[in-house]
Amino acid sequence: MSTMFELTATLKQFLEFAESDDIDEEAFNDTLEAITGEVGQKADTYVYVIQSMDGKEKSIDSMIEALQAKKDQIKKAKDRMKERIKAAVEAVPPDEKGRQRINGDVYMFGIAKNGGKQNLDVDTLHVPDEYLKVVYQPDTAKIREALDSGKHLSFAHLEERGTHLTIR
Questions:
Q1: Alpha carbons 37 and 154: distance in angstroms, whole number
Q2: Which residues are registered as beta bridge partners of 108?
Q3: Tens digit of pLDDT for each residue in 5-48?
Q4: Which of 109, 75, 64 shows the shortest CA–CA distance to 91?
Q5: Pseudo-torsion of CA 68, 73, 79, 82, nearest 10°?
Q6: DSSP strand E in 90-161: where?
Q7: Phi-psi region at 26: left, alpha or beta (left = phi > 0; alpha = psi -120 to 50)
Q8: Is the pTM here over 0.70, yes or no?
């Protein structure tokens, strides 16, 4: 049996041949019907495979959701355990150097300040102009409206809509 690629190529060649020569209309229609029938049968087979893949995809999505939930559960349990250790270390009085530490058999636990930039809380309604940053962005809704109304804009254009397959 021919592949979809081969059938499509055959159909294109046949249509090009039909445009260039004077061909018997009945023979043309019979051949065209035979080729498109084969394409239809192949497409039906593709749909069966696609539907099977849809089922596998949904099954995998379900597995991903279950694994993500399990991962989240493990992360929450891990974070709770870390918070409990932190609370225990914070409850210990500081040593002579001001450090709060607990020594285990294998690990040493201590409290340290976070690095990086400090969090910043800004009242955005009362920031003076000198501390504001102006950001210019294209107003795509306004540009689209102008193009839809027939206006020519040298800096923008509407692109062609694509196509998609429907299976009924």
A1: 48
A2: 103
A3: 888 888 888 777 777 667 777 777 888 888 888 888 889 989 99
A4: 109
A5: -130
A6: 101-103, 108-110
A7: alpha
A8: no
